[in-house]
C-alpha cells in the first residue's frame, strides 16, 4: 500500500503540557486508520496540526511523499485533507447547502443561486449515499445528519483524507451503524479516513489499523485484525483495565425516595415532551431510565430539578412535594444531581474551582454569614473536597474551564455527593469521559447506592444502563415503554423499547398461548 | 373635528412627509443590518449620522454641489465607523461601550468643528437637494406624488435598500457576512477572514449612516445644527429589531416611524390642547412600546456583540 500521509516526530508543547511528544503516524491510501487514546492523550492536538490549525514545535509532515508545511485550514483543504471537528463547525441557522458552500466559490461570479447549487450537492450526496435534508436549518436536524453534512462539506471541498474527531460521541447506536456504513462506502471510493475514538469496540469494528496514543506519546500501531480488546485497553490506559464493575446485590428497602406521578409536559415542537410519565425509585436501588436522547429525558430532568413546571402530575422527592418548586428549594433537599452536560448545566466554566464547589450552598451558613461570603471557609471546604475526590489541579483558584473533562466530572461528583444525598439523579454523566473517569464515576454512584441512596440513572448509553441498573425503565416519545428487572433484561429487548415498542408487545407474542 | 382629522392625515402631503421622514431611517437601518448580521452592534449610528450631516453640509459648502456633499457625508460616516471597527474588531473592545463613546465624542467633535470653521454668529445655508419628480412615475395617481416626487436622496435610498437586500441574501459575500455574525469560528474554519468581513460590514454601515445624515443637512435644513439627528440613530436600532434584521422589512417599519414623526408634527400644528412636546415624543414612545413588545421574540444573530478571538 502506498503511504498517503506520514507525520514524523511531531512535538507540540502548550504551557505546562506536552500535548504531543515525538508522535509518528502513517496513513496509507484507502485505509480506515483509528487513532485511539484517552481524553487528553493528544489526539485532537495531532489532528489540529495536520489541519494547520496549530503549528508543531517540531517534526515534519509528508503528504503523498512530499514534505509540506501546512499553514492553515485552507491549505490543508487544498491538499485534500478534510476535517470533521469534535464540535461541529456548522452555522446553526444556515441550511445544509449554505453550510456546505460557505467559503467556496461554487459558481462563477459573486452570485449565489441556491437552487442550482443544491442540485450539484444533491448529486454528490447521492454518490456517497449520504441522506441529508437540504432545506431545513442545521439547528433542526438530528446530530447524525449534522455529521453527514460535515462529511459532505469536506467531500465537496475535495477531501481525499477525511479526519473524524470522536465522531460517535454524539450519536445514537443506530446512527453509529449508519456512520460505519458511510465509512465503508468512503473506503470503497478510494478515500482514506482517520477515525478518532476512545471506544474500543468501535475501533475494532471499523478500522484497518490502529495507532494508540497515551500522554502525548504514541505507544503502538497495530493491524486491527491482530489486536485484542484487553490488549488495546492496556496500551491506552497503561495498566490492565477492569471494564466490569463490581456490584453487590440490591437490597430492597421499600422506602420510596423519588416518586414521579403521571407527569405531563407539552411543548410546541420537538419530541422532548412528557405524556404521563410515572416512575418510582426506592432507597438502595438504581433505576436506569434508558432511551435515545431527546425523547423526554431533558424535560423530565427539568421537572425534577425545578426548572420547569409540569402541566400535570406530581413529583415527590424524599417525601417533599417538589412540583413547581424553585431549583434552589430542590437543591436544599438532600438530593444530588449530576447533569448531562458538564459545562453548560453542571458547572460555570469561567469561574474558579472554589466558586463552583460553593454554588449550591454559598448563600447559607457556614459559607456565608449575614449575606457576606466567607472565602476562607469556602476555600478550606474546596481544598478538602479536591483532595478527597482526587481532582488534579494546582490549587482551587484555577478556572474550571481549564480542567480536563474527567477532572470537571470529579468536581461535580464532589459537590453533589459530599453531603451524602439520599436521592441521586444522574443524567448521561459519563459522556465524553475516558475509561478511567467512567470507572471512577460508576464506583462513586454504586457507593451511594450501597449506602442506601435511591438513584435515578438517566442514560442513552445502553452499556451504562445494563452495567449499573437494578431495574430498567425505557422512555420513548415521552412515554414509558415498560419496566423490567435488570437481570431479566437483554440488549435487544431494551433496544426495541428504545425505538418505541411497548414491553407488552414484545412479551405478548412470545408467550405460548 | 372628524373632517379636520381626515384633511390632515389622509392626504398626499401627509404620506409624502411620512416617506420623507422615513427614508433616513430606512437607509441607516440597511447599514445597521449589514453590521449586525456580521455580528457587530453599532450603537454609534447616531454619531455616524451626525458626522454624515456635517460632512454633507461642508462638502456642499465648498463645492456648491449637494451631490459632492452627499459623498462627503458618506465618507464622514465611514470614517467614524472605521474607528468603531478598529475598537471592536482589532482591539475586541466592548461594542456597546465603543458605540456609546463614539456618539458622545462625535457630538462634541461636530459641534467644535462647525463652530471653529463657521463661527457662532450665523449659519451658512448651503446648496441642497430640491424635490425632483421622476418623469412618468410621478404622474401615477396618489402613489406618484407620494413616492416619486421627493428629493433625489429618497430615490438613492430605494436603490440602496434593494441593493443591500440582494447583496446580503443573493451573494457569496452576503453569506459570508451572515456566517461571521452567526458562528465566526465556523466561518474561520472554512477559511473566511472573519476580521476582514467584519471591518467591511461596519464601514459599509458607516457609509449608509453617513448617507442618512445628509438627509438632515442637505434635504431638510440646508445647514448644520448641533445634534440635528435628534436621537434617530437609536430609533434605527429599534427599527432593525422590529424588522427582524431584514432590509426590506426595515424600510416598511421605517415608514411607520416616519408616519409617527409626521403625526407628531401635525398634532403640534393642530393645537388641540395636547402639549406639543407629547407630539414630539410620539416616535420615541412608539420605539419603547415596540421594543418591549418584541423582546425575546426575534432572530438576533447568534454572535451579535461578541468579539471573535482566535485561539
Ligand atoms: N489550546 C490549548 N492550550 C493549552 N493546552 C491545550 C490546548 N489544547 C490542548 N491542550 C492540552 O493538551 C493535551 C492534549 O489535549 P487533546 O489533544 O485535546 O487530547 P485528546 O483530543 O486526545 O483528548 C491536554 O492536556 C490538553 O489540556
Ligand atoms: Mg479530543
Q: Encode the helix/strand succession of chain B as letters.
A: HHHHHHHHHHHHH
Mind telling me the CATH class of the largest domain in chain A?
A: Alpha Beta
- Radius of gyration of chain B using CA atoms only: 20 Å
Number of strands of chain B: 0
Helix content of chain A: 25-40%
Oligomer: heterodimer
CATH superfamily of the largest domain in chain A: P-loop containing nucleotide triphosphate hydrolases
* Protein structure class of chain A: alpha/beta
Q: What name does the CATH topology of chain B carry?
A: ABC transporter involved in vitamin B12 uptake, BtuC
Biggest β-sheet: strands ordered side by side in the sheet of chain A: 6-7-8-3-9-10
> For the CA atoms, what is the radius of gyration of chain A?
25 Å
Present as ligands are: adenosine-5'-diphosphate, magnesium ion
Low-confidence stretches of chain B: none
Question: Can you describe this structure?
Answer:
The complex is a heterodimer of chains A (513) and B (311). Chain A has 18 helices and 22 strands. Chain A has helices at 43-50, 73-79, 96-101, 114-127, 143-156, 173-188, 200-206, 229-237, 297-304, 327-332, 342-346, 353-357, 375-388, 405-417, 435-450, 462-468, 491-498, 503-510; strands spanning 3-14, 17-28, 32-36, 58-63, 66-68, 81-84, 161-164, 192-197, 209-214, 217-223, 256-265, 274-282, 286-290, 312-317, 320-321, 335-338, 368-369, 372-373, 423-427, 454-459, 471-476, 479-485. In chain A, the strands form five sheets. In chain A, strands 6-7-8-3-9-10 form a six-stranded mixed beta sheet, sandwiched between helices. In chain A, strands 16-19-20-13-21-22 form a six-stranded mixed beta sheet. Chain A has a four-stranded antiparallel beta sheet with strand order 2-1-4-5, with helices on one face. Chain A is globular, with a radius of gyration of 25 Å. The model of chain A has no long low-confidence stretch (mean pLDDT 88). Chain B has 311 residues and is an all-alpha fold. Chain B has a single domain (2-122, 136-294), classed as Orthogonal Bundle (ABC transporter involved in vitamin B12 uptake, BtuC). Chain B has 13 helices and no strands. In chain B, helix 2 runs antiparallel to helix 10. The A-B interface holds A 72-74, 77, 83, 85, 89-94, 98-99, 101-106, 110-112, 153 and B 170-176, 178-179, 182-183, 185-192, 299, 302.
Amino acid at each position: 500500500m502506498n503511504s498517503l500521509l506520514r507525520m514524523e516526530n511531531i512535538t507540540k508543547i502548550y504551557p505546562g503540557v506536552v500535548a504531543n511528544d515525538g508522535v509518528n503516524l502513517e496513513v496509507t491510501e484507502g485505509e480506515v486508520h483509528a487513532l485511539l487514546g484517552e481524553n487528553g492523550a493528544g489526539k485532537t492536538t495531532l489532528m489540529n496540526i495536520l489541519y494547520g490549525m496549530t503549528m508543531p514545535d517540531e517534526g515534519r509532515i509528508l503528504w503523498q511523499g512530499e514534505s509540506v508545511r501546512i499553514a492553515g485550514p485552507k491549505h490543508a483543504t487544498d491538499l485534500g485533507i478534510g476535517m470533521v471537528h469534535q464540535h461541529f463547525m456548522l452555522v446553526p441557522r444556515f441550511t445544509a447547502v449554505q453550510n456546505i458552500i460557505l467559503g467556496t466559490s461554487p459558481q462563477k461570479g459573486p452570485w449565489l443561486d441556491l437552487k442550482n447549487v443544491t442540485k450539484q450537492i444533491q448529486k454528490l450526496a447521492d454518490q456517497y449515499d449520504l441522506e441529508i435534508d437540504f432545506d431545513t436549518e442545521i439547528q433542526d436536524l438530528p446530530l447524525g445528519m449534522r455529521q453527514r453534512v460535515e462529511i459532505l462539506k469536506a467531500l465537496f471541498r475535495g477531501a481525499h483524507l477525511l479526519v473524524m474527531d470522536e465522531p460517535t460521541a454524539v450519536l445514537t447506536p443506530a446512527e453509529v451503524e449508519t456512520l460505519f456504513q458511510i465509512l465503508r462506502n468512503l473506503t470503497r471510493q478510494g478515500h482514506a479516513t482517520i477515525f478518532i475514538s476512545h471506544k474500543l469496540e468501535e475501533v475494532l469494528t471499523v478500522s484497518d489499523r490502529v495507532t494508540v496514543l497515551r500522554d502525548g506519546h504514541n505507544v503502538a500501531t497495530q493491524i486491527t485484525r491482530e489486536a485484542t480488546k484487553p490488549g488495546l485497553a492496556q496500551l491506552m490506559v497503561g495498566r490492565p483495565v477492569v471494564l466490569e464493575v463490581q456490584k453487590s446485590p440490591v437490597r430492597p428497602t421499600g422506602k420510596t425516595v423519588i416518586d414521579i406521578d403521571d407527569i405531563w409536559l407539552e411543548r410546541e415542537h420537538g419530541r422532548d415532551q412528557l405524556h404521563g410519565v410515572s416512575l418510582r425509585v426506592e432507597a438502595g436501588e438504581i433505576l436506569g431510565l434508558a432511551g435515545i436522547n431527546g425523547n423526554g429525558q431533558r424535560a423530565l430532568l427539568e421537572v425534577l430539578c425545578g426548572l420547569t413546571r409540569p402541566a400535570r402530575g406530581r413529583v415527590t422527592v424524599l417525601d417533599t412535594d417538589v412540583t413547581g418548586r424553585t431549583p434552589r428549594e430542590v437543591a436544599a433537599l438532600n438530593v444530588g444531581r449530576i447533569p448531562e452536560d458538564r459545562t453548560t448545566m453542571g458547572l460555570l466554566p469561567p469561574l474558579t474551582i472554589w466558586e463552583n464547589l460553593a454554588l449550591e450552598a454559598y448563600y447559607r451558613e457556614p459559607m456565608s454569614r449575614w449575606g457576606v461570603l466567607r472565602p476562607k471557609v469556602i476555600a478550606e471546604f474546596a481544598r478538602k473536597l479536591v483532595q478527597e475526590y482526587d481532582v488534579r489541579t494546582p490549587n482551587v483558584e484555577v478556572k474550571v474551564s481549564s480542567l480536563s473533562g474527567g477532572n470537571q466530572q470529579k468536581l461535580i461528583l464532589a459537590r453533589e455527593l459530599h453531603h451524602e444525598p439520599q436521592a441521586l439523579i444522574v443524567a448521561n454523566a459519563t459522556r465524553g469521559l475516558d475509561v478511567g473517569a467512567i470507572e471512577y464515576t460508576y464506583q462513586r454512584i454504586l457507593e451511594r447506592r450501597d449506602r442506601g441512596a435511591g438513584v435515578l440513572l438517566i442514560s442513552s448509553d445502553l452499556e451504562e444502563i445494563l452495567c449499573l441498573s437494578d431495574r430498567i425503565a425505557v422512555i420513548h416519545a415521552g412515554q414509558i415503554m415498560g419496566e423490567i428487572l435488570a437481570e431479566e433484561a437483554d440488549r435487544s429487548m431494551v433496544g426495541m423499547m428504545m425505538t418505541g415498542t411497548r414491553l407488552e408487545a414484545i412479551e405478548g407474542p412470545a408467550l405460548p398461548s | 373635528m372628524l373632517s379636520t382629522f381626515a384633511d390632515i392625515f389622509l392626504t398626499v402631503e401627509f404620506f409624502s412627509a411620512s416617506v420623507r421622514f422615513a427614508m433616513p431611517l430606512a437607509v441607516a437601518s440597511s447599514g445597521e443590518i449589514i453590521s449586525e448580521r456580521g455580528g457587530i452592534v453599532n450603537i454609534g449610528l447616531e454619531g455616524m449620522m451626525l458626522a454624515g450631516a456635517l460632512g454633507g453640509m461642508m462638502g456642499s459648502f465648498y463645492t456648491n454641489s449637494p451631490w459632492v456633499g452627499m459623498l462627503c457625508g458618506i465618507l464622514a460616516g465611514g470614517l467614524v465607523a472605521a474607528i468603531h471597527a478598529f475598537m471592536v474588531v482589532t482591539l475586541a473592545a466592548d461594542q456597546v461601550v465603543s458605540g456609546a463613546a463614539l456618539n458622545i465624542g462625535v457630538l462634541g467633535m461636530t459641534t467644535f468643528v462647525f463652530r471653529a470653521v463657521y463661527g457662532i454668529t450665523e449659519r451658512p445655508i448651503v446648496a441642497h437637494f430640491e424635490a425632483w419628480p421622476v418623469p412618468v412615475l410621478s404622474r401615477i395617481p396618489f402613489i406618484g406624488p407620494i413616492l416619486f416626487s421627493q428629493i433625489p436622496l429618497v430615490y438613492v435610498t430605494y436603490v440602496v435598500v434593494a441593493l443591500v437586500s440582494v447583496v446580503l441574501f443573493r451573494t457569496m459575500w452576503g453569506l459570508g457576512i451572515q456566517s461571521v455574525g452567526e458562528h465566526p469560528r465556523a466561518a474561520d474554519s472554512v477559511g473566511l477572514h472573519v476580521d476582514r468581513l467584519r471591518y467591511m460590514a461596519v464601514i459599509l454601515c458607516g457609509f449608509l449612516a453617513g448617507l442618512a445624515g445628509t438627509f438632515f443637512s442637505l434635504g431638510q435644513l440646508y445647514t448644520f445644527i448641533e445634534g440635528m439627528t435628534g436621537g434617530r440613530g437609536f430609533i434605527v436600532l429599534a427599527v432593525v429589531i422590529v424588522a427582524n434584521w431584514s432590509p426590506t422589512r426595515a424600510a416598511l417599519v421605517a415608514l411607520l416611524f416616519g408616519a409617527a414623526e409626521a403625526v407628531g408634527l401635525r398634532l403640534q400644528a393642530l393645537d388641540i390642547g395636547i402639549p406639543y412636546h407629547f407630539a414630539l415624543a410620539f416616535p420615541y414612545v412608539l420605539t419603547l412600546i415596540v421594543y418591549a413588545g418584541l423582546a425575546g421574540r426575534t432572530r438576533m444573530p447568534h454572535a451579535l456583540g461578541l468579539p471573535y478571538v482566535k485561539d
